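During the second half of the funding period, the structural biology subgroup turned its attention to how the target accommodates small molecules. The most pressing case was magnesium ion, which had performed well in the primary screen but for which no bound structure existed. We therefore specified the complex as follows and requested a full 3D prediction, including the ligand pose.
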Amino acid sequence: MPRSKHTILIIDDEKNTRDGLKLALEDKYRILLAEDAIKGLKLLNENQVSIVLTDLRMPGMDGMDFIRQVMAGPQKPLIIMLTAYGSIQTAIEAMKLGAYDYVSKPVDLDNLEMMIERGLATLAPPQDDQDSKKAEVLSNIVAVSDKMKKLMELVTQSADSTATVLLLGESGTGKEVIAHALHALSNRADKPFTAVHCASLNQNLLESELFGHEKGAFTGATSRFIGRFESVEDGTLFLDEIGEISLPTQVKLLRVLENRTFERVGGTEQLNMRARLVAATNRDMAAMVREGTFREDLYYRMNVVTIEIPPLRERKEDIPALLDFFLKRNQDAKSHHIVGFSPEAVNLLTAYDWPGNVRELRNCVERMTVFARGQVLTLGDVPAEIRQSIAKQFEQSRQDAQTQEGTASQQDEPLDVKSNEKALILKALAECNGNRSHAAEKLQISRRTLQRKLKEYGIQ
Ligand SMILES: Nc1ncnc2c1ncn2[C@@H]1O[C@H](COP(=O)(O)OP(=O)(O)OP(=O)(O)O)[C@@H](O)[C@H]1O
Ligand SMILES: [Mg+2]
C-alpha cells in the first residue's frame, strides 16, 4: 500500500465523463472534479495535484489556455488530454505547450491507467513520502541535547532557502553530516550534492576543480574540464575547509557569489551559478578576518546563515544516544550480538571530553565492538588511551577544584562532593580495568566500603 495517494484532477464539461472516470480511478487515486478550466485552476491552487485529465474543448477557458496557465504556474502536474475524434492535431499542439500525453474519447480505461502509472513514475513522490524521506534523514542524525535539537530546527528551516550557509565547528562535530542534511531536507534533494575539500588541492587545481577549465588554459589542460559549479547544476555545492583557500581564489569566489556567474579557467563564456552553496570550516573565521588571511567581504557573503555545531563535550546528553546509535549501526556487519553498554561504561564515556568529537566516539565504539569480550560492553572494553585520558582529565579537574578551594570563598556553587566521589571511583575503576580490589586499594578504602559506594551510586 502506498503511504499516500497521488491526486488526479479531472476537468470535463460532460458530467458522464467526469463520473465515469472518477468511478474507474478512485480506488487507486484521490480524485478531484471540475466542470470547467477556471474551477480546475482553482482546485490546482488549493491541492497538490500529480496529474490533470482535461478535455480540450470546453466553454469558458479552453484546454489550450488552461495548459498555458498551468505551465506558467508554480505547480507542474502532468497533463493528459482527453481528445474527441478529429482533434488529434490540437492534442499535438498541446503537447508542444508541455502537456504530457493524450487519450482519445471514448476513453480506453486500461490504456489510460497505464499512461497514468507511467507518468507517475516520473514524478517525485507525493508529499507524505517526501515527509517520510525527511524523517529518515533526521533519524540518522542523533540530536538529544537541547543544543542539537535547536540546531536541527534551524537546519530544517533553512534547508529550502538559497542563502549560503556557513557551518562552524571543531573537527568531527558533524559539519559534513549537517551539510548533507541541508541538502537532503531541501527541495533540491533529488539534485546532485557535491563536496569539494578545499584544503586538499593547491590553488590552480582548486580553481579548475571549482570552475572547470578550457582546453589549453594551461600546460597539461589537454581537454575541456567541467568544474563543480557547473556539474552540480541546481543541487548543493559543499565547500569544505573554506578557511584554507588562498586569497586569490577568495577573490574569484567572491566574484561568483556577487554576480552568480563564472567562467571556466581560460574561457570567456559566462556560466550561471545555480547551485546552493554550503561552506564549512573548523577555523576561527572572525579571527582570520581580523588577521587579514580571509577576506571580510567574502566572509559576509558566506555566512548569510551561520550554523555553529557545538563540540561534543558541551552537549554530553548526546553521548549515550550516540554510543547506542553507532553500536546498532555496527551490529549489522558483526556476526556476534552485543546487547549494549554497561551503565558504568556509559558513565565513563560520558565523562570523557572527546577532543575528536563524534568521529572519535564512532571510532571508539567500532573498536569496542571488534574487541568485545562479552555481550555487554563494560569498563574493561573501553580503549586504554581513553581510560588514561579520563584519568588525567579527572586528575586535572580535582587539582583545579583544590586550587579553587584554596583561593575561593566567593565561589558560587558548593563543590558537589558526591559527584566528585563518584567520578573518583569511576576513575579508579577505569585505571584498574574494573578490578574492584585494586580500585579500593588505590582509593585507600576497604573493598567493602567500595562495594557500598558502588551500590549507593548505582555503579554495577
Ligand atoms: N549528530 C550526529 N549523529 C550521527 N552521526 C554523526 C553526528 N555528527 C557526526 N556524526 C558522524 O561523525 C563522523 C564525523 O562527522 P563529520 O565528518 O560530519 O565531521 P566534520 O565536522 O565534517 O569533521 P572535519 O572537520 O574533521 O571534517 C561521521 O562519521 C558522521 O557520520
Ligand atoms: Mg568534514
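Two results from this model are relevant to the next phase. Residues 408-415 have pLDDT under 50 and may be disordered. Residues 175-176, 240 surround magnesium ion (ligand 2) (CB under 6 Å).
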